[in-house]
Write a structure and sequence with these properties.
With 126 residues, this protein is mainly alpha-helical. The chain contains five helices and no strands. The chain has helices spanning 13-28, 30-43, 47-66, 75-89, 93-106. Helix 1 packs across helix 3 (47-66), helix 2 runs antiparallel to helix 3 and helix 4 crosses helix 5. The model is unreliable at 1-5 (pLDDT under 50). Belongs to the UPF0456 family. Its main location: cytoplasm. This is Protein C10.
């Protein structure tokens, strides 16, 4: 029989929704909003600079929340949390919605190039 303090187990689906909401709320905290604004200003909407400046700040903000729920306080903990959220998105529209809101907080809006896939152009037939 395994000891009571056995291996770490991920939060349930309802608990994941709560953690996700807390993470989003953490981005609204005045000190975190300032940190994110500064990072976005440094990134100037350049995807490479977003990865350099914005993503580390967003990761730190998430780490501060999820460590209270047993996730490790490092990049691996954030990745585990992201995978857990992703696993529940298809089953739970609220988690899917919150996940979209979280991503919108630190990822720039994706725009399609002027010539979309329908234009044909440089796509070779196989």
């Amino acid at each position: 029989m395994a000891p009571a303090s056995g291996p770490w187990r991920p939060p349930s689906q309802p608990a994941t929704q709560i953690v996700l909401a807390e993470v989003i709320q953490a981005f609204s905290a005045p000190e975190n909003a300032v940190r994110m604004d500064e990072a976005r200003d440094n990134a100037c909407n350049d995807m490479g600079k977003m990865l350099q400046f914005v993503l580390p700040v967003a990761t730190q903000i998430q780490q501060e929340v999820i460590k209270a729920y047993g996730f490790s306080c490092d990049g691996e903990g954030v990745l585990k949390f992201a995978r857990l959220v992703k696993s529940y998105e298809a089953q739970d529209p609220e988690i899917a919605s919150l996940s979209g809101k979280l991503k919108a907080l630190f990822l720039p809006p994706m725009t399609l190039p002027p010539h979309g896939p329908a234009s044909g152009g440089s796509v070779a037939a196989s």
